[in-house]
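User: two proteins, same treatment. go.

Assistant:
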Amino acid sequence: MKNRSITVQGAAVGITTRHEQDYISLTDMVKNFDGGSALIEQWLKNKDTVLFLGVWEQINNPGFNSLEFEGIRNEAGRNSFYLPAKKWIGATGAIGLYAKAGRYGGKR
């Protein structure tokens, strides 16, 4: 993996190249906002986000598990719905997001 960063409104945002694809760090993007990484969790709970990720995967990922996606899609938007990135990736075979432990054990 190759790492570099860009500066966005004064904040360094990491970019990692993995399997010849660039990924931006969502953690870096939200670290200067109140709530920080909780914003990512809220974003992944949002039904529209789940639908967007599902469509993106269906277009770009031939190995995407659409059957698992349908189950997640049906749960999305409920108050009790929680979707960690690792669960999304593990259940659906998603390639558009990836999660890794951060410097202090958090996810990236």
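Protein 2:
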Amino acid sequence: MKSPRTHFRKVESINGYLFALPYIFGFLALTAYPVLYSFYLSFTNYSVLKSPQWVGIENYRELFTDDVFHTAIKNTFIYMLTAVPLGTVMAILLALLLNTKVRGMAFYRTLFFIPSLVPLIATAMLWMWVFNGEYGLLNDGLRRIGVTAPNWMGDPAWAKWTLVIMAVWGTGNAMVIYLAGLQDIPQNLYEAADLDGASPWKKTKAVTLPMLSPVIMFNGIMGMIGGLQQFALPYVMFPGGAPARSTLFVSMYLFDNAFNNQRMGFASAIGWVMFIITLILTLTALKVSDKFVVYDRS
């Protein structure tokens, strides 16, 4: 005969699985199955309107010889390698400023966080007005002080920089995480540094940045993944990757092939190549982080 405690644990386990069942079903049906099916589709010629036809590695072979894909992946990496470091530096500097004890600090924190709450399409429309080469707010201000204003959105040399500037402008989410990390640093470390006569810069270098390194690693990896997946802003602001495909990113090329060209199999191959690249970069970052990330806060 089973004891009451055993029966209670069995009922508790059943109830736990029942509560988790909606998530399990959603994960299997809406995440796991589409991911696995896309892997199968990457080896097929699939136009959505017809049944998939097996073509083996033909999609991958075409992908690695596709000049447009090479341009897209080059643009994506240039954007990621500029926007992520600049955004990281800006977010840390803002967090350091907002971590000081100044009157009205809650207002300033809210002010710097608000840009990250603006919907992406609204953000795109706003910056299209700011960067407009003829009547844009930025160029109008530059002309008034005698500076020759570039054609931000029409010049291939400047187009990607508009997206980088927008990325730096919207660092509110990362800033809040850095601010939380700063407030979690033990104050006794700063007190010990003061006793040693450390300057503000030395305290930042020897205490703040090492103690903040886990947060920097997290935000860096998330920023890298977000940079590789950049889509909405360039797709709205630069249709087709204009000008001269200088703003064509991999996610835009994937979307165009999947839904405009009806090449779902080829688009799936693009997605899996980017997944492998993202996975390799993430694992590399985690491996390298062992050398500089400090987890001991004692």
